[in-house]
């Protein structure tokens, strides 16, 4: 194998090592709400872009009085988080096809992992929620009307993402340790 063909692996390896060394935002811990911001550019995200939040069921809602209260598992890379409705994950095959939507009444204990990288500071008591392999983005087919819910799932990416999707970022609003 030629050295130039190894460069992507060396860069990826050194990036992964540096991420593992210091990746966690201390505000992503305890209990909190998950606010949903419109957009797909974490560098330009602003709290004025809040479109809704995640309800106890795991669905996207626009009524901020319906935000669920979630509790994280491990304070660094949480393989679990839960609401009053039970464990939440992206692994339930009964959810919306095309990428499993978040569901919070699952009996499955694990099904993804969530973390917050240090260096993306939206403000005191707030932290962006990343999932999977360095993915801070989520998608839905619509923003629900007040009183309704919509499924939301991790951004699936690709060179030609579907045009019928809206893109979001999740923001942890810490309520307690």
From TrEMBL:
The keyword Signal applies. Keywords: Signal. Residues 1-17 form the signal peptide. It comes from the Eukaryota. This is Lytic polysaccharide monooxygenase.
């Amino acid at each position: 194998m030629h050295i130039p063909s190894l460069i992507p692996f060396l860069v990826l390896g050194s990036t992964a090592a540096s991420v593992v060394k210091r990746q966690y935002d201390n505000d992503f811990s305890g209990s909190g709400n998950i606010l949903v911001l419109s957009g797909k550019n974490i560098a330009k995200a602003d709290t004025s872009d809040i479109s809704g939040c995640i309800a106890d069921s795991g669905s996207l809602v626009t009524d901020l009085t319906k935000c669920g209260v979630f509790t994280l598992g491990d304070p660094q890379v949480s393989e679990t988080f839960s609401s009053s409705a039970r464990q939440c994950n992206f692994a339930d095959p009964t959810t919306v096809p095309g990428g499993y939507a978040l569901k919070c009444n699952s009996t499955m204990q694990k099904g993804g992992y969530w973390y917050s990288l240090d260096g993306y500071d939206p403000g005191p008591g707030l932290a962006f929620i990343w999932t999977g392999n360095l993915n801070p983005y989520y998608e839905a087919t619509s923003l629900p009307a007040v009183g309704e819910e919509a499924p939301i799932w991790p951004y699936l990416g690709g060179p030609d993402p579907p045009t019928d999707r809206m893109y979001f970022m999740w923001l942890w609003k810490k309520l307690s340790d």
